[in-house]
Fold this protein.
Amino acid sequence: MLNFEKILINWPIIPVGLAIVLVIVALPQILRLLVSFRENIATSETQKIYQRIINPDQALLQSIILLLLADIILLVTHRLVPKLQSINIIEFPVGLSVSLVIGWLGYRLVERFFKIYLTEITQNGQKLNSDLLIVAKGLTFFLFLFIIITIFSQAHEINIFGLIASLGISGVAIAFAAQKTLEQLLGGIVLYLDRPFMVSDYIGLPDGTFGKVESIGLRSTKIRISGKGTLMVV
């Protein structure tokens, strides 16, 4: 082990060259696996989703896989031989680049998925709360981004959770400031899921107001008051 460590320290180009060779050798196999995966997907619906959402970024996906393989080799080498600082200098920007590209790919996939989903719902004549769709898209991408940041920080021994804890006081202050907005958003989500009424329904309010529901948002509902034509926001 000591001889192996000495060799790597004296010849840091070895793991770098190994990473490059592996990427070159693995490229045809990765392309073959992607084609095989696409052709052997179980259901036609899954194939349809793959073709419409993933296939447009297949070249980007291949690049990510190759970069990820190279980064894993460099990261493992650095863990085995901590004294080899030159590898860390190379690996960190490679790992950061991989994380950024994966984040960009995730954004494109989420954006494309929700765009297609929204288009299909509109074509089918179904009513959709656009505010809820925006929130769902944002939460999906935020969760994806959080997973990437967590994996990157753990792989590079960055205490991201300690950093979050140090910002606890600021987080509490922001939470209090946004409390009213969060209440409105949660109320809108509950209203949309329960669906006690729909757009174009006529409803009565506790104060005696009666009118037609114009729109249902996450933060407010618009009602056209009968007989007056006045638009009320509740």
Observations:
- Residues 213 and 223 are 4 Å apart (CA to CA).
